[in-house]
Amino acid sequence: MNKKNVLFIIGIILLLIPVVLGLTSFFYTPHPPNTMNVANRMQYPSMEHLLGTDQFGRDILSRIMVSSRYALFIGITSVFFGSIMGVMLGALGAISKGILRGLIMRMIDGLMAFPGVLLAMMFVAALGEGIWNTILAISIFMVPVFARLSYSLVLEQQDKLYIKAAKTYGVKPLRMIYKHYLPAITPRIVTQFSASIGGAILTESSLSFLGLGVQPPNASWGLMLNEAQQYMLTFPYLTVPSGVILMMTVLGFNLVGDQLNDLLVRRKGRN
Amino acid sequence: MRFILSRLLSGVAVIFVVSFITFIILMMIPGDPALLSLGTEATPENVEALRDAMGFNEPWYVQFLEWFTSFISGDLGRSYLYGEEISTLILQRVPVTVSVALLSLLIATPIALFIGVIAALYQNKLPDVLARTLMQIGDAMPSFWLALLLLVYVAAGSSLFPISGFTPISEGFIDSILSILLPSFVLSLGLMGTMIRIVRSSMLIALKEDYMLLAKMNGISKFKTIVKYPLRSAIIAPLTIIGMQMAGLLSGVILVENIFSLPGLGRLLLVAVQQRDLFLLQGIVVVIVSTVVIINMITDILYRLANPTMRIGGRDE
Amino acid sequence: MKHLTKIGTSLLIAGIFLGTQTASAQDDDTLNMALSVDPDGLDPHRTTAASTFQITNNIFDTLVKVTPEGELTEGLATDWEISEDGLTITFNLRDDVEFHNGEAFSADDVLYSFERLKADESPRANDFANITEINVIDDYTIEFVTENLNASLASDFAYPWTAIVLEENEEELRNSPIGTGAYALEAWVPQQNLTLTKNENYFDEVHIDTVEFTMMPDATARTTAMLSGDLDIVGVSGDLVSQFEGNDSFQIIENQSNAVQLMAMNLGNEFLSVPEVREAINLAVDKDLLIESVFWGYGEKIGSHYPPVLLGYEDHSEAYAFNQEEAVAVLEEAGFEAADITLDMYLPSDYQSYVDAGQIIADSLENIGINVNIEVVEWSVWLSDIYTGRDYDLTVVGHTGRLDPYVLLARYHSESSENYFNYNNERIDELLTDVQTELDEDVRYEMFSEIQDTLAEEVPALYIQSPIGLSVTQANVRGYESYPIDIIELKNIYFE
């Protein structure tokens, strides 16, 4: 077992934690996540409450479990939508010519120039807060990375002999994308996909922290940290648990993304 | 020359597209600024009268054209909320945002260079493993969480760092730096991951170049050679991506300004969103995005001038 | 005028937390204060934000002023007289007042200001629609003629939005206002700081020379700044007050506000239109626990739309006392299955305590089987969709206090544009119409009492509490008083 594998396994373990917590929360949480018990508020960890209780006496572990669902769901779906939009836009830009290509490229450049948080803030302000709007905002923020990747990959492919051959046979553009380009660029896209999930989860929690993402009574790690900020002086412990799990999850996805990159892209490049 | 011209033109096109898209998005923002200003006592007649006075009853394209023509002549209009010129409001905040961004670059660059170079020299040995661990943690660390932890465990307990607010340089250099040190540190950690990665890989490539072997054969000490060749390219490497990092850096600034209550563009932006001050919002967005576009343009052009043979990947020249 | 409210300040809608920053050097000439909410411009006629009035009230004057006890006293007017029929009020104005730019103050400025306040773009246009005629008699005498009788006419001229402004200043009123007040605006950089300097020509005593406001949106930051001695006065929440307790360097000031906080119910909803359902909702919520959890116990439980500090208060706080079994029984008796009821609750995201309170109420309602969907909306959306559009089932919000009970209760008239409960009761409509023209104080208060009783019984809302405001000052601060309307008189503050 070499070092690469160790990192990969660490990554998988880290990311399995929120997955298991999130899935378990569908049928079991130690306490109901939204039930308040003021007499028991702001408790440090105990046998009864393994991670303690928050400002309303809600069980922190149960809330973290439920939050895992949202973090994973929002992270994965927004990268999913973002990658589909991005890949199509980039591929379209690469196979088209003239004004259309110029327009698409300016759009991508324009999106690239938006600081992500700014873009997401604008979208959330326009569409309103809530889970689906957060997903839409983050996926748009993901578009340029995928668009530029697929643009350059398709351009690269266009120079290849079999594509030129297919073209001379008069294969239709859509069929070209589906039959020839997609299979060739898929490994790179998959790598980028897994590497982007960590960032998407981070963006979700940042937005929720600013009060622009997931809203109460739903739980989100970012939102829990937002609430914790109020009690910074009286109960600083509240800032710890949800931050730790958030960081572990992102680290897990990043490690797995990096190792996939080594596996699918670099190794292939070497052959 | 043709390249510079086309780069300039495409930059202007991007700014136009961006301001148009922004305008459309802002038009979709629900919540009526007139109603917000009138509050819980308003009658429908009041709201209608105020909407007229604010110019919101014009068709959207008229509003956009009016806005864009005055934007080109340098006039961003007046903030509805503060009654102040938007350009004044933005200029008041630029020093804060720029100081935070600059200080974080100043912190991140030397540390990233040092760590990146050491990691490359000791590839796959302990220093490299440590450097890469740090890189991973830097990437995974949520900046707002780090900010929160610093506030709770560093700032709240000491009188050295103010918990919020900005001290202008005019009130003392040290105080001013202290007031933005924690936020800048948070930002720099986010920048470091990418920087270390770039320094390390460009250093690794340079170390494998033929001239290293040549130098060795000529009996020049390894240290001298490293200082002379690979280190140079390692130092230049992160500079070339500053343009691309700009958007990410500003994203981070917006976040930390809001956590540390620094009165910069990021806070102004959040208030403009919350108070539906649409022209103020439009002004800030366009100014921020234009800055990114212009810096990108300049670095692209400089890069091109420095390496005439290079083609910048992904662009469609 | 003793029917006005007694004590209290409300830190409610767009509340402000003020703090003073005296210089650690104990510079008696500078009072540095902290703002938690940025003023939304400094034009007193074009804002509804309490945080803005806290500033503008010191830059501008009103014709009539209020004492901390709620009595009316002279302002720019030395005295006033109400005609026999009660429809005309005549003010005698001070002749020794100057605006900050040296311009002399006269009745024309009053005329201009009230015309501006009555303009369509003004949020108060409705409140002053009753004034049909304003006549300048001479430079220092002005009369207002009203259409309908208003028994508390004079108090209308004491609110901070009735500030007297200068016509030539109109264009700049939002960012560089000129008033006649005890302090003049020196500089304002939004979101950073705001400086006021003493008006040397003010007609009354002003103690401190310079007041410097620094923007500090974060409660923790304000608290630490206070603890380290950088601030002299700070508004705090119930959980943070513990940081100052038992420390002789600070004084803790509690003041019962005259605001009311409630969960409004939309009677347009098929379930909520049934009195028994509203009754069950009231029975299901433990208000004491709610006040303890969200407000750390700093609030006075209420049972009707009337703060305990307002004269004529009837105690209904124990009506529908917490009893979840009874709540279920009431629902069943009325023929409802709790599980069939689903209600949408909207909470304004800008007010953390309302969001918190809403979650606790929802939790209680789920306990008796009613389903609640919570949606958190921004304040602007709340105003347009919930308050104005009345598109909601439940919402938690607060109403700021008023000097006259009529203004407080007028929203329950079925025709009122502010009746977002969709409450409709003929008897209440009749009372609200009659009380305006009734000149006998005792009869008026009987009417207010009947309205309170009816609201407490029919519960168009879950009346929660009237909050207790908490301020902390350094031990040497004197003259910091709270008023029944949301203002702070900086001129009275001094250091011992």
TrEMBL record, chain A:
Keywords: Cell membrane, Ion transport, Membrane, Nickel, Nickel transport, Transmembrane, Transmembrane helix, Transport. SUPFAM superfamilies: MetI-like (SSF161098). One of its GO terms (cellular component) is plasma membrane. It is found in: Cell membrane. Residues 68-257 form the ABC transmembrane type-1 domain. CDD domains: TM_PBP2 (cd06261). InterPro entries: BP-dependent_transpt_permease, MetI-like, MetI-like_sf. It is a multi-pass membrane protein. Pfam families: BPD_transp_1 (PF00528). PROSITE patterns: ABC_TM1 (PS50928). Gene3D superfamilies: MetI-like. The keyword Ion transport applies. GO terms for biological process: nickel cation transport; transmembrane transport. The chain crosses the membrane at residues 70-95, 107-128, 134-154, 189-214, 234-257. Belongs to the binding-protein-dependent transport system permease family. This is Peptide/nickel transport system permease protein/glutathione transport system permease protein.
Automatic annotation (TrEMBL), chain B:
It is a multi-pass membrane protein. The chain crosses the membrane at residues 7-29, 98-122, 143-164, 176-199, 234-260, 280-303. GO terms for cellular component: plasma membrane. Residues 94-299 form the ABC transmembrane type-1 domain. InterPro entries: BPD_transp_1_N, MetI-like, MetI-like_sf. CDD domains: TM_PBP2. Keywords: Cell membrane, Ion transport, Membrane, Nickel, Nickel transport, Transmembrane, Transmembrane helix, Transport. GO terms for biological process: nickel cation transport; transmembrane transport. It is found in: Cell membrane. Belongs to the binding-protein-dependent transport system permease family. This is Peptide/nickel transport system permease protein. It comes from Aliicoccus persicus. The lineage of its organism: Bacteria, Bacillati, Bacillota, Bacilli, Bacillales.
From TrEMBL, chain C:
Belongs to the bacterial solute-binding protein 5 family. It comes from Aliicoccus persicus. SUPFAM superfamilies: Periplasmic binding protein-like II. One of its GO terms (cellular component) is ATP-binding cassette (ABC) transporter complex. GO terms for molecular function: peptide transmembrane transporter activity. The keyword Signal applies. This is Peptide/nickel transport system substrate-binding protein. Residues 72-413 form the Solute-binding protein family domain. It comes from the Bacteria. Keywords: Signal, Transport. The keyword Secreted does not apply. GO terms for biological process: peptide transport. Residues 1-25 form the signal peptide.
